[in-house]
Amino acid sequence: MNAALPLSELHASLSDPALSAMNFLNEVVERYPDAISFAPGRPSEGEFRATDVSRYLEVYTSYLAEQEGFSPERIAAELFQYGRTNGQIHRLIARTVANDEGIAVDPDNVVVTVGAQEGMLLVLRALFGSPEDVLLVSSPCYVGITGVARLLDIETVAVPEGTDGMELAELERISAEIRARGKRPRALYLVPDFANPTGASLPTAARLRLLEVAAAAELLVIEDNPYGFFRRVGEARPTLKALDSDHRVIYIGSFAKTCMPGARVGYVLADQPVSGAHGRRTTLAQELSKIKSMVTVNTSAVSQAVIGGMLIANGCRLRDSNADAAKLYTQNLQLLLDLLADRFEGRADIAWNRPDGGFFVVLTVPFTADDAALERSAREHRVLWTPMNYFHRDGAGSHGIRLSCSAVTPEEIRAGVGRLAAFVAAEESRAAS
Residue 46 domain-assigned? Predict the structure, then answer.
């Protein structure tokens, strides 16, 4: 084949700059390996060792033999063969979310996915059956959900986010506007705890109010909760799913931040009843199984076994087992906030938010913080960050910088903020000249 494939003849999403943003960021990281990076939202590698993989596999296989009564032949099939489409560790996950979040879910309504990202794809593909269906998202919003929506040709509409999370009056108004133009607000996606990229967190009273607004607007709610354990100040707040009394909330979870990102294991809690022809009733989890069978067939049995071993070893209580990680992240976040105050306090043209937890802080600067600025920051000052315009669909965020403090040491945070301050000063001089 000699002729190149015209990009114009491929799916339109491949020409969308938003889908290229993360690739560009990864390329910059690779080109400047000595730079201090506040860019990735990945967890700390902590004390994990490669030998732990075999240890957790041993824990899981012992559990199958001793608690489930599996024969050696069946254990081998569990690990080495194709498995149940919706997953093998669904019972362990149901126990864990009950212990950690007070969420009561039938294990049969747990779908084990290839990370939270597959969960998003499965849920959106199932829920959005008409071009008239619209997905509501916070603004700014995690690019993973808007990227999946773009791949599936689903219209997204942004709802502004304030200091304390999504603005519910705007959610009501925008939902009504969508209906007024003949479309249906089908579902709302949000991260109630320490959202990516802003770190905003919805107060408990607002969570209850959000469920009321969603019910009135006939909206399903897709709750994503990767950061809920990592609170800097205050008490833990109930998840929307724990507050859900009418199966309105579809809950997406992941073991990337709490166990091991390399395993690529997540899950969806989808207990919504589904009615079919001739009175047939299933649940959304069962319907997601049909889609998953055509996307990934099933989630890696070996990865599930490793995560299952971690859950068993920790008594299916990840909040307790993540206490040291939570302490690390909160100390890093506090240090970052303190250093930003030392460098920029009193500057009317520079601001930053102060999240109650999570991985992220947003710094607002008096110049355009785009890809070109990131390139200069990496090349000339050896410090990396993420442009906030990646997380907006409306052209906003041009003066915002997302700083992630989860995968850096305190020494790197101190040095990195110094380099960041030098970069800001250089950009101001550049703009002035």
Answer: no
**Is 161:169 a contact under the CB 8 Å cutoff?**
no
Residue type for position 157: V
Residues 263 and 367 in one domain: no
Structure tokens at 245: 């009394």
Continuous segment of H or E residues that includes residue 118: helix 115-127
Give Cβ neighbours of residue 133 (< 8 Å, ≥ 6 apart).
127, 154, 155, 183, 184, 186, 187
- Which of 281, 298, 318 is the endpoint of a domain? 318
**CATH code of the domain in which 419 resides:** 3.90.1150.10
Residue 36 to residues 135, 314, 425, Cα–Cα distance (Å): 36, 33, 18
- Asked if 198 and 330 sit in the same domain, the reply is no
- Whole-number Cα distances in Å, 81 to 77, 85, 282, 301: 5, 12, 27, 8
Q: What are phi and psi of 114, to 5 degrees?
A: -85, 80
Question: Structural domain tally of the chain?
Answer: 2
Q: What is the CATH number of the domain that holds 308?
A: 3.40.640.10
CA distance 136 to 155: 9
Going residue by residue through the chain, which has 433 residues, state the pLDDT in tens, using 9 for 90 and above: 578 999 999 999 998 877 887 788 788 888 999 999 999 888 987 777 889 999 999 999 999 999 999 999 999 999 999 999 999 999 999 999 999 999 999 999 999 999 999 999 999 999 999 999 999 999 999 999 999 999 999 999 999 998 899 999 999 999 999 999 999 999 999 999 999 999 999 999 999 999 999 999 999 999 999 999 999 998 999 999 999 999 999 999 999 999 999 999 999 999 999 998 888 899 999 999 999 999 999 999 999 999 999 999 999 999 999 999 999 999 999 999 999 999 999 999 999 999 999 999 999 999 999 999 999 999 999 999 999 999 987 778 899 999 999 999 999 999 999 999 999 999 999 888 7
Residue at a domain's end among 302, 318, 334: 318
